[in-house]
User: Fold this.
Amino acid sequence: MTYDLIAALVLFAFVSSITPGPNNMMLMASGANFGFKRTIPHMFGVGIGFSVMIFLVGAGLVQVFDAYPILHTVLKVVSVFYLLWLAWKIAHAAPPKGKSDSEATPLTFLQAALFQWVNPKAWTMALTAISVYTPDQSLISVLYVSFAFGLVNFPSVSVWTVLGQQMARFLTSAARLRAFNWTMAVLLVASLYPAFLG
Assistant:
């Protein structure tokens, strides 16, 4: 990889990782409801899970989807239903103040990592990164792309978690917290638009 290509890749990884999408909406909601510390496994699940996804897609999984186009449709349907279910969970995530925290829990590392496989934005990012930044389709180029996203992703998603945590200062009543969670749920559903394009 040339220096210019690496610089462009890092910029693409940063912009695509920090802009709104299902992961960032969920992390902001988690930061507001559970705080930064309890959301750390979720953040690592996003970063590591997505890096693994990029590597596997670049290493040949994309050829399976090219060979069996029906898998695109199946993935789209599963993604939509799963994101709708997650939006419902976010809308009902936080217990009112004073109730036990055991009633609601943040996503685990594994849940967040597996979520990448049904995240429409993650698929768009992975396919774009592999097609644009691995011109020779070599395994070393795929590793560069995966590594670049791994480095950039965690700081990017942390911003959204901190934003949610800071917003928690204003979410001091059950009504405000409920309104925030419903807003995040609606934004998560709105982030499904890539699944309906093309």
Summary: The first helix runs from residue 3 to 18.
